[in-house]
Write a structure and sequence with these properties.
The protein is an alpha+beta fold and about 400 residues long. It contains four helices and 22 strands. About 30% of the residues lie in helices and about 35% in strands.
C-alpha cells in the first residue's frame, strides 16, 4: 500500500515538472517573437539629409583694433605768444585751416626790415651796374685800365648777389610771418587743445598743440594664426583657385553687439614676419567710416572673406548636437542603417546650413529629425530628406 502511494507522488511531481517546463518554453518563444517583431517593425524612424559640397568663399572672423588712417601732431614752427585758438575741440577740420594765431608783431617788423635791406641792395646793384657799363666804354679809349674794368665788373656781380640774398631774406621773413598762423596739416577730426591763449610757443617744441586724426577711411589691424593662413593658402592652391590670388580679400567690421557695418573694406597687406611669442601674422585692412561709427582704438571683430571660391562641406544646422562634454557631433547612418556618433568641427552658418571643417564627407547621411529617439548603434528606419532645409545662400 505504501509503495502505491509513493508511486503516485512521483507521478504527480513529474507532471508538475513537465508543465513548468512547457510554460517556460512558451514564455521564451513569446519573448523571442516580440524581440524579432521589435527589430523588424519598431525601429525608430529618422529623417536624414545627405551632406553636400558647395563652392563657397572661405571666411574667418578675427579680433582686432581700429587705427586712424593718418595722424598729425600740430606744432608751432615759430616762437611767440599764443593769441587765439580758432577751432572747436572735437570738430572736423580741413587741411590748411587756421587753428591758432601766434603774436605776429615781431615777424611783421622782420618783414619790413627785410624789405628795406632788399631796397638798399637793389640801389647798390643799380649804381655798380651803371659804373660797369661806363667802364666798358672807357676801357676801349684807354681812359681806365683793363684791371679797373675787371674790378668794376666783379663789384657789380657782388651787388647782384647781395640783391639775391636780400630777396631770400625777405622771403624767409614772410614765411615766418605766415607761420604765426598755425594751420591744419591734414583734414580730419581734431582733439582737445593742449595749450591756451597766453602760452609761450617754441618753434618745433616737443609737446603737440593738438592732434588731428583722419578716420575716414580707417585702418583695422588684426592678428591671424599663421598656421590657419597657411592651411587656407594650401587649400586654395589644391583647389586650383589661386589664379585670382592678386585680388584682395574683402573685410567687414562687426561691432561689439555683432551687428555688421554696411560698408565693406579691403585687405591692404599681411606682415611677412610671424610673431614668435603668439604665432600670429599682423593683417591690416582699410574700411570706409563715413558715418563715423568707428573711432581709433576700438576693439572689433573683422570678417575676412577670400575672393576665391573653394569646395566646402555643408550640413543642416538641425543635424548638430553635442556630447556630454559639449563637443559638437552629429549622428550618421551607416550602410547597415545603424546610427553612429561622429565628432565634427563647424565653421560659419549660411541660412539653415553650416560649414563642416572636419568630421563629415560629401554624400554621408546625417540625421536631422528623430534625434531624441536614438542612441549609438541602434537600428533606424531612414526617410531621405528631399531638399535642403532652407536656401543655404552663398558667401558674398
Amino acid at each position: 500500500m505504501k509503495k502505491t502511494v509513493q508511486n503516485r507522488n512521483v507521478t504527480r511531481a513529474g507532471v508538475l515538472c513537465c508543465a513548468l517546463l512547457l510554460t517556460l518554453a512558451s514564455a521564451c518563444k513569446r519573448d523571442g517573437g516580440q524581440d524579432a517583431a521589435a527589430r523588424a517593425g519598431f525601429a525608430p524612424e529618422v529623417e536624414v539629409y545627405r551632406v553636400t559640397e558647395q563652392m563657397l568663399k572661405p571666411q574667418v572672423e578675427l579680433p582686432g583694433r581700429t587705427a586712424a588712417y593718418r595722424v598729425a601732431e600740430v606744432r608751432p614752427q615759430v616762437s611767440g605768444i599764443l593769441q587765439k585758438r580758432l577751432f572747436t575741440e572735437g570738430s572736423e577740420v580741413r587741411e590748411g585751416q587756421v587753428l591758432y594765431q601766434i603774436d605776429p608783431a615781431l615777424f611783421q617788423a622782420a618783414v619790413k626790415s627785410a624789405e628795406a635791406r632788399l631796397a638798399q641792395a637793389q640801389a647798390q646793384e643799380y649804381s655798380t651796374r651803371q659804373k660797369a657799363e661806363r667802364y666798358r666804354t672807357l676801357v676801349k679809349t684807354r681812359a681806365v685800365s683793363a684791371q679797373d674794368q675787371v674790378e668794376m665788373e666783379a663789384t657789380w656781380k657782388e651787388a647782384q648777389a647781395s640783391v639775391a640774398a636780400a630777396r631770400a631774406a625777405l622771403e624767409t621773413a614772410r614765411i615766418n610771418l605766415n607761420y604765426t598762423k598755425v594751420k591744419a596739416p591734414i583734414s580730419g577730426r581734431i582733439g582737445k587743445s593742449k595749450v591756451t591763449e597766453g602760452a609761450l610757443m617754441t618753434a618745433q617744441q616737443a609737446e603737440a598743440m593738438a592732434v588731428i586724426q583722419q578716420i575716414d577711411p580707417l585702418y583695422v589691424d588684426v592678428n591671424a594664426p599663421a598656421n590657419e593662413l597657411l592651411a587656407l593658402r594650401t587649400k586654395l592652391e589644391s583647389s586650383g583657385a589661386n589664379a585670382a590670388a592678386s585680388a584682395p580679400a574683402s573685410v567687414q567690421v562687426l561691432m561689439a553687439d555683432g551687428a555688421p557695418l554696411e560698408q565693406q573694406g579691403t585687405m591692404e597687406f599681411s606682415d611677412i614676419t610671424v610673431d614668435q611669442g603668439t604665432g600670429t601674422v599682423s593683417i591690416r585692412a582699410t574700411v570706409p567710416n563715413r558715418e563715423r561709427k568707428l573711432l581709433p582704438g576700438m576693439f572689433i571683430r573683422a570678417r575676412l572673406t577670400s575672393p576665391q571660391e573653394m569646395p566646402t562641406i555643408m550640413a543642416p544646422l538641425a543635424a548638430l548636437t553635442r556630447t556630454q562634454r559639449g563637443e559638437p557631433m552629429a549622428y550618421v547612418v551607416d550602410e547597415q542603417s545603424r546610427a553612429q556618433i561622429r565628432l565634427i568641427q563647424t565653421g560659419r552658418t549660411e541660412g539653415q546650413m553650416m560649414v563642416i571643417t572636419s568630421g563629415l564627407k560629401a554624400g554621408e547621411r546625417v540625421i536631422v529629425q528623430g534625434l531624441q529617439k536614438i542612441r549609438p548603434e541602434v537600428q533606424v528606419r531612414v526617410v531621405d530628406k528631399a531638399a535642403a532645409p532652407a536656401d543655404a545662400g552663398k558667401a558674398e
